[in-house]
Write a structure and sequence with these properties.
By secondary structure, this protein is mainly α. The chain has 26 helices and 8 strands.
Amino acid sequence: MSSRSTNRMRRTWTTLSSRRRLLVTLKRFGKNDQVILSVMALLLGMGAGGLAILFRLAIDGVQILALGFPGEELITLLREEPWWRMLLAPAVGGLMIGLFVHAFMPGRRPQGVAQVIQASALRGGRMDLVIGIKAACVSATSIGVGASVGREGPVVHLGATVASYLATVLHLGRSLTRTMLGCGVAAAVAASFNAPIAGVFFALEVVVGHYALSAFAPVVIASVTGTIVSRMYYGDYPAFVLPQTYTIESFWEFPAFALLGVVCAAAAILFIFFVGAAEGAFDRARVPRWARPGVAGLLVGALAALGFPHLLGVGYEATDLALSEVYALDMLVALGALKIAATAVCLAAGFGGGVFSPALFIGAMAGGAFGLIATEAFPHLSSGHGAYTLVGMGAVAGSVLGAPISTILMIFELTSDYALTIAVMVSTVIASVITQQLHGRSFFIWQLERQGISLSGGQEARLLRAIRVRQLVDRTYATVRPDTPIAEVRALLVKAPWGELFVTEPSAEPASAGAAASNPPVRAAGDGQYDSPDPGADTDHGPDGGPDHGPDGASGSDAPEPGEHLLGTITFHDLSEAAFDTSRDNRLTAARMMRPAPTVLELDDDLERAVKVFGASGEVHLPVVDDRQHFRLQGVAHEHELMATYHRALTQARREERGES
């Protein structure tokens, strides 16, 4: 063979080898979690940006029907409308919303950012798409008829819902789903405010809970993509247009900015307090839940008809006018106080919507009023009360949302004014610290606690609450009938797993057909055999090794089975003398020797409750039932497995925070 042919063959072999290595590399690259997340983040950014646009168009459509015109310039356009339209639109619209929420929404209440935080912290990021669409319809209608609420929270909820649905379709595990949730939230915030940086940090600060690169990169991609989609439709304009560029005239102003932070903290705490007070007033008045939005709409409509149309809708025009230094001191104080009352009543009544726009409105009025007083007292040191208006917006919003970092960045991006960023930082941090110390939590966490949902205790407690007993139940156990002779019980105990027998009888109420078909148990009660499920029915796992949860955060493969009714448990300790004394074997049965009404766990108990039950009972193995009403035995929970599961979850969370896979 010639040297030329040999060289040609070598070159051909080298080329084929290079292509093969490239193909292998590309296949590995395509299976990488970060690559998958980046692609999904791009799609989510496009989807959330489009949904933000559709949501605003939906608000305009409802507003045309209710008030006669689209757009955010309600103060200007309502001057040409009759007073009765301002009065009736929120009232009639509120009545329709109340009926819809009462009939179709879970818990008979609208949903928003608080439910996104709950899903991220306790449900592994799982949210229901249908409920998300219903919640968006409720919020768009609420804003369109003039309810004094914000539009950003509903868009965040909608973006998170779509992200969660996509993660469910792809069967992603807990950590990847939470990152996807952050992508949806970031894109929604960025598209709503034309603020990509703030969108990133809001998602990481409020939803994801850490800044690891594994989450940071896809969240940035989603936020930037959402911003691009929004700018392609609306143009590259900030949400608020400043009449001038503000500069800090003197460093002696910083004590004034610090004092403004104290004032804004008082405004934020007052706002949250009034929401709770309004809920209490509705409860004491025994107003039906379905009628409350109508009552609130009538009150807000009456205020608008009496000369305060500024209170209707998101309030962007009134905030712009405050930044332009149009309002006098008495008007600023009146609008700030009335906005607190109007938004509190609307949220307490059950209108759908967010709190960010109202918080900006309240902050603008509080900052503007403070700025007028400060300028009057020290005219040569003041930057103008418009500057204090801008600083107040950030301070109140940061305190209410519990997200000072993203709020500072958001104010900068909304106004494109860098000079006052330091002043915004000072006031926002002081207001946030005071609110945290006096009130103890953000508005969203407070909302969840009002519903009986606690996120306190730090990450460790949230991890315990996020894991359900159904995810680690052991379905290998031995059962006996109540009339089983003691001699047989004694023999079965020797072979019983965990040295414990469960006394059961056929359940009087059969389980649902769906549960029975999903994982039929192998029962052999009474003959000494052991219950054991189909080996293939173990908890499914997602790509990252976490449990594959259903939409409600529960494992889809561990649905309650048609277990038998649990009567009691028997161990050698319960047999006492009968463990060795056979003289009474003909008179003793399992029913006489068992411990009746044993301590149990439910399938839907979280690990936090399970730890408390184990500690109080002193047991290391506990029976698991479907619920305490039916008491159908589903399996056994082991204390050592519970602690091992918690340790694995905590280790994984720590690795995520460090950016490790």
